[in-house]
Specification:
Length: 362
């Protein structure tokens, strides 16, 4: 299959936008776990967590599963058979990867709305993943959007600003599908922490996000949670649940190291106005008690849920607030069940359910 050449204009100029996660999916992209260094001492259990994720997600949509080779497929099939996954819902895609955090490395889909003249059409934006400007092993991962575009026959847009590749990750952006995008200053505007896009200022970054994702407004929260090695991804702190409602994590313990930075986000969110000028409804989502492993604080957060066709899957942490968080999300999502997936072992990799998944819109 030949890769369709992308036009020189941007996705926004051609009418593409980044759909909300709750809109209907054609598939979910995942990459089979293989990098044991992400979960030292706990790697053996990770494939079985994938099995539970795939079991829940695949009841409502196809899974596009990236594997490195036939051995990965054989083991994945073994796990899926044990937990009761329908193999007809799984598409195995052979592509060597460095890691499995598909939210950040996988294809980010934009879509044109359906009209009288044509059906809805989607394309892929390549945001040039570079290992969170932190790790050295990323060069296989950064090819994933190109592999997906070739496989699906989609247009591929290479995001750039001032003639240079533009770098973001999917976990660093959150949209309501109507024109508003949220991110954090810590992740993309704080040059002292890391460098993803050297020499670009706030306006240039916002303009590039608008050009390639079709959003109208960009709003910046301050910081992410402690333990997050991505420098403050938004998907651990703030998520839209519909076009006009979002959840924002809140730490009630004033002695916790998350208390001050998360309180600042609550102060900032008061100034958020959506693309139509309206003020969103903001619902507090609790934080679990601090979770440590081998002396390291982990970025455990209920905000790292994933919205799929069949359910909302939410990370849980053997914590009293598990029940509260699931109840809050259950009240907000009435059109599909909210289910918890045990993530104490998973978050040792400094990520959770949302970090591993990437939606392909229908």
């Amino acid at each position: 299959m030949h890769l369709k050449p992308a036009p020189s204009t941007t996705p926004a100029e051609l009418g593409y936008t980044f759909p909300a996660e709750w809109e209907f999916h054609a598939a979910t992209w995942l990459a089979w776990p293989h990098n044991a260094s992400d979960w030292p001492g706990k790697f053996e259990v990770i494939p079985w967590i994938y099995g539970e994720m795939v079991r829940k997600i695949s009841t409502g949509e196809r899974i596009n599963l990236i594997i490195r080779h036939k051995q990965d497929e054989t083991f994945a099939r073994h796990v899926f058979q044990q937990v009761g996954v329908d193999f007809r819902k799984i598409r195995f895609i052979t592509h060597a990867t460095d890691r499995g955090w598909t939210r950040d490395t996988g294809p980010i889909f934009v879509r044109k709305a359906e009209s009288r003249k044509q059906l809805a059409e989607s394309a892929i934006v390549h945001f040039h993943f570079n290992g969170w400007a932190k790790y050295d092993n990323w060069r296989k991962d950064t090819k994933t959007p190109e592999i997906a575009a070739k496989l699906l026959g989609k247009k591929l847009f290479h995001a750039e600003s001032n003639g240079k590749p533009f770098v973001i990750e999917g976990g660093g952006i959150e949209v309501n599908g109507r024109g508003t995008l949220l991110s954090t200053e810590q992740c993309y505007l704080n040059w002292k922490v890391q460098v993803r896009n050297p020499r670009l200022g706030k306006k240039e970054i916002e303009d590039t996000l608008k050009n390639y994702l079709g959003v109208k407004d960009v709003f910046w929260l301050a910081k992410g949670t402690k333990g997050d090695d991505t420098h403050g991804h938004i998907d651990d702190i703030c998520r839209f649940v519909n076009a006009k409602t979002l959840v924002l994590v809140k730490e009630k313990n004033s002695k916790d190291e998350n208390y001050k930075p998360l309180s600042e986000n609550w102060e900032r969110i008061r100034d958020l106005r959506l693309e139509d000028g309206s003020k969103p409804e903001v619902i507090a989502l609790p934080m679990p008690s601090p979770l440590y492993f081998d002396g390291v604080r982990l970025p455990a957060s209920y905000a790292n849920f994933y919205i799929c066709n069949a359910a909302i899957i939410v990370p849980t942490f053997n914590d009293p607030n598990d029940r509260i968080a699931l109840g809050i999300l259950g009240e907000l999502f009435r059109d599909r069940p909210v289910v918890g997936i045990h993530a104490v072992d998973l978050v040792w990799g400094f990520g959770s359910l949302h970090c591993l998944t990437q939606q392909q819109p229908a």
